Amino acid sequence: MEKKEPVPIKFQPDKTLVKLFAKVVVTAKQFPGVVESRSYGTPAIKVKERLIARLRSEAEGGLALRCNVIKREMLLMSAPETFYITYHYENSSYILINLGTANWNAMPDIIERAWLLIASPKLIKEYEMR
Length: 130
What we know:
The protein has 130 residues and is an alpha+beta fold. The chain has helices at residues 15-28, 69-78, 107-118, 121-128, and strands at 34-39, 42-47, 50-55, 63-66, 83-84, 94-97. The protein contains four helices and six strands, in the order H-E-E-E-E-H-E-E-H-H.
């Protein structure tokens, strides 16, 4: 089966965002099944075609990352300069992260929580067996 080419990037991120997103990708690839991809014409991270995160290089920017509602509220209160939402994401299971102000020591845990929301039981077991 021929592999489909990813959607071209519509909103080219600046060099700083490219470097910061690369750090996110390195962290995310610690988890089984994670692949770099595209979503809505932006760089993205997926597990088995399911979106974990995408770099919003257009308009408001930020990394859109899957997040449960309770954790999202905690993050929004803990560091409003880093975590935010826009009207579009108000009723979704995503949080936006300003990668320029992110605490990179906390990112592995935040990304792991996002991964756990969509990883299959088989992938979770694989991760736990490491």
